[in-house]
């Protein structure tokens, strides 16, 4: 399901190893923004978990792609939910999309107010019996987490979930 939202609105994040090693010029060191990021990762994960439980009891994987253009208030999102080999569409309620939009906008606002770099794209998701991964991107083209309008976004979700499963 793809959604565009706007407005203001537990566990430590798994950070891509290249980010911590400083290997990517599109991924600045976010260590100083860690508390802010953890706060909002937990808020987004809580929304995803609650809605996954309501839509598919016993779900196995949940993933979210987010794109935020630096010069726009709009946020594009794509969410996937699976229970084994069963894929669910339209599983987030309108109120969940609204809440998610508010949390994402508040996250960007807080990063900006604190002088931290703002992500432009991210994967956030996890496996029920495994880890949770937050994988941000800071490039203006959204990197590997770019939401594709005319193509399936499931390969990107699966890539993020593979990382989450290893945590």
Automatic annotation (TrEMBL):
Protein name in the entry: Uncharacterized protein
Compositional bias annotation for Gly residues: 1-10
Classification of source organism: Bacteria, Bacillati, Actinomycetota, Actinomycetes, Actinomycetales
Record organism: Schaalia georgiae F0490
Annotated Basic and acidic residues bias: 15-24
Region (Disordered) location: 1-33
């Amino acid at each position: 399901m793809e959604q565009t939202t706007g407005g203001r609105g537990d566990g430590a994040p798994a950070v891509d190893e290249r980010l911590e090693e400083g290997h990517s010029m599109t991924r600045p060191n976010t260590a100083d923004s860690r508390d802010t990021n953890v706060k909002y990762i937990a808020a987004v994960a809580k929304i995803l978990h609650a809605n996954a439980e309501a839509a598919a009891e016993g779900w196995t994987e949940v993933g979210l792609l987010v794109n935020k253009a630096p010069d726009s208030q709009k946020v594009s999102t794509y969410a996937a939910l699976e229970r084994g080999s069963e894929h669910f569409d339209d599983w987030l309620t309108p109120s969940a999309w609204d809440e998610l939009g508010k949390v994402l906008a508040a996250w960007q606002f807080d990063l900006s107010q604190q002088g931290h770099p703002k992500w432009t794209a991210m994967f956030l998701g996890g496996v029920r019996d495994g880890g949770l991964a937050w994988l941000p991107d800071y490039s203006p083209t959204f990197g590997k987490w770019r939401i594709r309008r005319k193509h399936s976004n499931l390969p990107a979700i699966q890539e993020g979930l593979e990382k989450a499963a290893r945590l």
